[in-house]
Amino acid sequence: MSQADDNDRKLAHLVDRAVRGLPTRIAPPTLELRVLGELGRHVALPWWRQSFSHWPRYARTLFFAVCAALSGMAFVGGAWIVAGIGTVQAWRQTSAVVAGASALLISMVRTIPTAWLYDAAAVTAVLYALLFALGAAAYRTLWADL
Questions:
Q1: Distance CA 91, CA 108 (A)
Q2: Integer distance in angstroms from the first to the last C-alpha of the chain?
Q3: What are the distances in angstroms from CA 106 to CA 14, 48, 129, 132?
Q4: What are the Cα distances from residue 15, in Å, to 18, 21, 26?
């Protein structure tokens, strides 16, 4: 046995002795009622709201079959799209649609006044800072004392 294993064993023994020496704590009387109520509520859930392992066998089988079918359709559809885009005509049509959409987007953006864009950037920055501050406050309130 190595020195590290011996130290780990001694530490485990010391921690075990210290924990066993602590007085037993009695739970508040309302805790038992809340725990039993939550367990009863969880048991009363329908099968589709419980974890996947509690689903009936036919539902799990059907779920896997649907997932396999959708995965197969995604692969076949992707191959079909790649094969269809391989033609010159498809490339021309796709590039025409992309060019038209980008021209429309550029013309729409140019009609927005510059001051509005600056205002939107300022509002976004303020909202982001507010979100950060709320997250920090929530952390300090909920988890900092644990």
A1: 26
A2: 38
A3: 71, 47, 30, 33
A4: 5, 10, 21
CA 3 to chain centre: 43
What is this structure's pTM? Answer: 0.37
How far is CA 70 from its chain centroid?
22
Token pair of 81 as six digits: 């799209």
In tens, the pLDDT along 112-137 reads: 898 999 999 999 999 999 999 999 99
Residue 59 has a CB neighbour count (10 Å cut-off) of: 13
Only one residue has tokens 């099968």, namely 47
- The DSSP result for 59-90, as a single string, is HHHHHHHHHHHHHHHHHHHHHHHHHHHTSHHH
- Tell me how far apart the alpha carbons of residues 27 and 79 are, in angstroms, rounded to a whole number: 61
Give Cβ neighbours of residue 84 (< 8 Å, ≥ 6 apart): 90
